[in-house]
Structure formats: structure tokens, C-alpha cells
Amino acid sequence: MSQFFQLLIYGIQIGAVYALVALGYTMVYGIVDLINFAHGDFLMLGAYTAFFTCLFMGNHFVLCLLMAMLVAGVIGVLTDRIAYKPMRSQPKLSALITALGVSTFIQNFCRALPFIGPIPKAFPTLIESKNITIGNVTVTTTQILLIVLAFALMLGLNFIVNKTKVGRGMRSVSMDRDASALMGININRTIAVTFFIGAALAGAGGVFYGIMYPSLEVSIGSFLGNKAFIAAVVGGIGSIKGAMWGGIMMGIIEVFATNINADLGFGVAYLVLILILLVKPAGLFGKLVTEKV
Questions:
Q1: Would the CA dihedral through 170, 173, 174, 179 be positive or negative?
Q2: Left, alpha or beta for 135 (phi > 0: left; psi -120 to 50: alpha)?
Q3: Which residues, other chains included, contact 292 with Cβ-Cβ below 8 Å and sequence gap of 6+?
Q4: What is residue 88's three-state secondary structure?
Q5: Do residues 69 and 6 lie in contact, with contact meaning Cβ atoms separated by under 8 Å?
Q6: pTM
Q7: Mapping DSSP to helix (H, G, I), strand (E, B) and coil, where does residue 132 land?
Q8: Whole-Å CA distances, 59 to 1, 121, 123
Q9: Which residues pair with 140 in a beta bridge?
Q10: Among 93, 78, 51, which Cα is nearest to 199's?
Q11: Residues 36 and 85 sit within 8 Å (Cβ to Cβ)
Q12: Other Cβ atoms within 10 Å of 15 Cβ, number
């Protein structure tokens, strides 16, 4: 039983990172009907931002986290303005190919930079960790802090979407963009805010992942982005609640499967995706939408 709770803690910890990234996928899809395959790279950029912030300004966790979220958010907005905005009136396939191209460009551009490069870097120690033993279960203060912060960010997003004017605009645009424009909502500004918030959450996820697994390389964004995308689809793409619970669920399942067999843990996300979609094609919290032809 103690091993069960130990694995559960690890699963919630990595699942919270998946959830933070999955939220960006589901928000952007809900607003502009775009699967932003470059979204995982915002996580990587956030992690590297924290790394260089620590290098030049010291091991200040809060500063590194805020800088990672800010830089990732700004790059997310710039990506939308430069690459995605011209594609909004084009076929969805064109936008999808553009997203793949943006992801490839970001990874290779970072790999070509001499101060990043292809060689992995050791992520700095931003938090001094202490062990807390409860019975036979050991929890670190770092794990508790990261889980609490991740849930705080998710609850904060939920508050913004459901209780603020900005959130009402986002929900309105996701339902009917043309009607929202007629009601006086600035569509481009709403989309920019959506990209900023989603990318900022991914940047925070990059910091959390770097603390958990202190080895940075350019490809981590693509790897984790795929897992987070699966979590968003499992939860129901377009559903914020689905992205949250989908990420947590995927993290827990992955950790327990890895405990059984490492190869099983690597591929279990895809197995869960297939099984869920066979039973609920729209995901756990998604809704099937009938489109007129």
C-alpha cells in the first residue's frame, strides 16, 4: 500500500505538468480550431529561460518561474501573429502544416544557437528539498510545492475563464467568432490573450519538469508536448476541465505502468488514447458537435 501512495504522488506530480501543457492545446483549439503542435516547444523555451535566468540572476525560484512564463507567453503571442494569424482564413490543413513547421523551426533554431546547442544541460537546483516521511511514504517538500503551484495555476485559469471579462470574451469567441465581433469583442486581442496564457502555463510546466528531471535538451518540448496533446484529447479537446483531469490521469497511469515495465510506461499513453476514443470519441469531458455540410 505504501508503494501505491508513493507512485500516486509521482503520478500526480508529472500529471500536473501534462495538465499545464494540455490546457494550452485545448484553449487554442477552442478559440481558433487549431492544433498548435508547436505548443510543447513553449515548455522547452520556458525551461531554458529559467536556466539562463538562474545563470545570470541567481537561484531565485519565483523570479525564474515568472521569467519563464513571461518569455514563453510573449513568444506564444508572436508565434500567433507571425505564423498563425495569416492562416486563419485558409483551410485547416494549411494551419496544421504551419504548426508543424513552426515546431520544427523553433527546435532547430534553438539547436543552432551556440549558447543552447544540441548538448543537454543540467538544470539548476532552484529549491532546497527536504524529505517528509508519513508512515512508509516519503514525500519531498519540492513535490508538495510543485503540485500545489500547478493546481493553483490551473484554478487561476479556471477563475479567469469563468469569472472575468477576458474569460467571457474567450468563451464567446470559442462559441461564435463572427457574433462576438458584432458584439464588440476584439477577436485578435482575445486570441492573443489565449495564446499568452496557454504558452505561459507551458513555460511554468517547463520549470516544474526541469526541477523534477534536471536535464535540459531541445527535444523535451516535442516529447512532452505529444504526451500533453494525448492528455487533452483524452480529456476532451476544447474542454478546460478535460485537459486538467486528462493530464493528471495520464501522469498517474504512466507512472504505474512504468513501475511494471519501462516499455509499457512509454507506450501506455497511446493505448489509453485508443481505448478512451473507442468508448467516448469526444473524450471524457468533450461533447460531440454536429457539423452541417
A1: positive
A2: left
A3: none
A4: coil
A5: no
A6: 0.93
A7: strand
A8: 37, 16, 11
A9: 131
A10: 78
A11: no
A12: 28
